[in-house]
Amino acid sequence: MTRIIRNPQPSNLLLSHSGPLITPPAPNKIQFWNFKIRNFNSYTKIRIFTFTRIYLVTMKTKLTLTVNKSIIDAAKRRAKSRGISLSRMFEEIFEEEGSYEIKTEQQRAAERLLQLLENSGSISTKDDKILIKSHVKRKFA
User: What's the CATH code, domain 59-95?
Assistant: First the structure.
């Protein structure tokens, strides 16, 4: 399959790519795609660049857990309602950003403090002139 993209410049240059677009290479192999420029005035071919497409292959392993039957049934129902497997749902939980961090007591205390501050009402601010007048009254009264 060849895909040709017209260059908007008036030089009549075309960028073409020939080679496999859909067929993936064998695992752990490198595939090169060559791009060429064709000038239709002189019919010369010039190679612009070559780039590499690399596939990463990850292995799946089995895990055995000991869990209450009611929790297993609830997890299966939730996975079925979402249309995914129980294994995929487990992967999604641990792929989420930040789920792998174990927080210290100080970090948990800081989070609780931030939540309290967010939920507390704001303090009304006073005008500087009023504050200065009240300070002068208290100081010299």
Answer: 1.10.1220
Q: Could you state, in order of their start, the residue ranges of all structural domains in the chain? A: 2-54, 59-95
Amino acid code (one letter) for 34: N
| pLDDT tens digits, one per residue of 70-101 | 999 999 999 999 999 999 988 888 777 665 67
Per-residue pLDDT tens over the stretch 112-124: 998 988 888 777 8
**Residues 25 and 53 sit within 8 Å (Cβ to Cβ):** yes
How many Å apart are CA 74 and CA 39, to the nearest integer? 65
pTM of the model: 0.33
Q: List C-alpha distances in Å: 94 to 10, 58, 114, 119.
A: 53, 16, 25, 29
The strand pairing partners of 52, in sequence order, are 32
Residue 65 CB coordination number (10 Å): 7
- Name the strands in the sheet holding 44-54, side by side, starting at the edge strand that comes first in the sequence: 2-6, 13-18, 30-39, 44-54
**Which tokens is 50 given?**
């070559």
Contacts of 82 (CB under 8 A, 6+ apart): 89
Q: Do residues 35 and 17 lie in contact, with contact meaning Cβ atoms separated by under 8 Å? A: yes
